[in-house]
Design brief:
Number of helices: 5
CATH class: Alpha Beta
CATH topology: Metallo-beta-lactamase, Chain A
Number of domains: 1
Largest sheet: 6 strands, mixed
Mean pLDDT: 97
Structural class: alpha+beta
Distance between the termini: 29 Å
Order of helices and strands: EEEHEHHEEEEEEEHEEH
Number of strands: 13
CATH architecture: 4-Layer Sandwich
CATH superfamily: Ribonuclease Z/Hydroxyacylglutathione hydrolase-like
């Protein structure tokens, strides 16, 4: 699976394009539809995954839906556990704390996890915004610690990290 990161918008949101055998999944189309469209080029989009509904993660969602006519997946229509979209098989994990609807997407075969604003390098997402909850954040952290420490974490903003690094150095862990 090829992973491409497009940084979009004023808050520099990471929009990810995942490609596998000529199929593309878009994760968190934050803003700047034209920039995302240019990165997609002529590849076939089969779906859009939203980790959570904050504006910096969905700013280009409507334009993508209109232009590509593809389904949107989120906490409401993915089951917790194993899901398959086209050639992509992944685990959806409910990880509230930053927002009540936040999900993380884990690709076991590639040992990568897309976490939205749940985890950042050295910290976690804010819990003082609407939909945030520090108690739920602590539960989500405990849940995620059970995954392999070498799992690469792809956050909604900033650089990637590994779960092992966060367990070792992140004060919230």
């Amino acid at each position: 699976m090829k992973i491409e990161n497009i940084v979009v918008g004023m808050l520099e949101t990471n929009c990810y394009l995942l490609e596998k055998t000529d199929q593309v999944l878009v994760i968190d189309p934050g803003e700047e539809f034209n920039k995302i469209k240019k990165a997609i080029n002529n590849r076939k989009i089969i779906g859009i995954i939203i980790t959570h509904y904050h504006i910096d993660h969905i700013g280009a969602l409507e334009e993508l839906k209109q232009n590509y006519n593809v389904p949107v997946y989120d906490y409401s229509n993915l089951q917790e556990g194993i899901n398959t979209i086209g050639n992509f098989t992944f685990e959806m994990i409910r990880t509230p704390g930053h927002k009540e609807d936040l999900i993380s997407i884990y690709f076991k075969k590639n040992n990568v996890m897309f976490v939205g604003d749940f985890i950042f390098r050295g910290t976690v997402g804010r819990t003082d915004l609407e939909g945030g909850n520090i108690i739920e954040m602590k539960k989500s952290i405990e849940k995620i610690k059970k995954y392999p420490s070498e799992t690469i974490i792809y956050p909604g903003h900033g650089p990637s990290t590994t779960l092992g690094e966060e367990i070792k150095y992140n004060l919230y862990f």
